[in-house]
Amino acid sequence: MGETKGSLGEKLKIISGSACYLGYAPVMPGTFGALPGIAIYYFLWKFSAPDFLWVGLFLSVFLLGVLNYYLTPWAVVYWKSKDPSQFILDEIIGFLCVPLFYGTHQFAKTALWGFILFRVLDIIKIFPANYVDKHVGGSTGILFDDVISGGYAAFCLFLLDFFQLI
Questions:
Q1: Which residues form the YutG/PgpA domain (predicted)?
Q2: What is the spatial distance between Cα 4 and Cα 97, in angstroms, rounded to a whole number?
């Protein structure tokens, strides 16, 4: 049975898919939408044992990924776009991939530089992220260009650390 417009189920999908309406920001919805990723990372960094931080990050990415795959078909129809700007679960996942892939958990440095690098790289979309963004449809395309950009951001953090630039 389908949901009616304005139903509780539809409202929960909007809240989840837009990260509590951050995806509705009039400017830079992806940047605002990625901010909950910092909050999730902080919560895991602060309240989990260091040996379990990676597991917490992995589970967060996995569970948000499942939610992304579940909600994408609905979001595409609801917002009438192949990649709706309001639907920003992929931005949260993309940012969370930075500390997941980077692995060195100095929270302030990883959160600040990782966030900046992720957003810049997600906006410019270096290959293969640009290919995925343009040629892979549905949930996979919406999600994996951000995961790739998160991987690039983690690699840049590693290089900046290696050369002692941050």
A1: 18-160
A2: 35
Whole-model pTM over 0.90: yes
User: Positive or negative, the Cα torsion across 64, 47, 166, 32?
Assistant: positive
Tokens 């290959």 sit on residue = 127
Residues in the chain: 166
Tokens for 119, please give them: 């957003």
Which tokens in the block code for residue 101?
Answer: 């892939």
Q: Where are the domains of the chain?
A: 9-162
Helices 29-47 and 107-124, packing angle to 10 deg = 150
Residue 92 has pLDDT above 70, yes or no: yes
Secondary structure of residue 125 in the 3-state scheme = coil
- The pLDDT tens digits of the residues spanning 30-89 come to 899 899 999 999 999 999 998 899 999 999 999 999 999 999 999 999 999 998 999 999
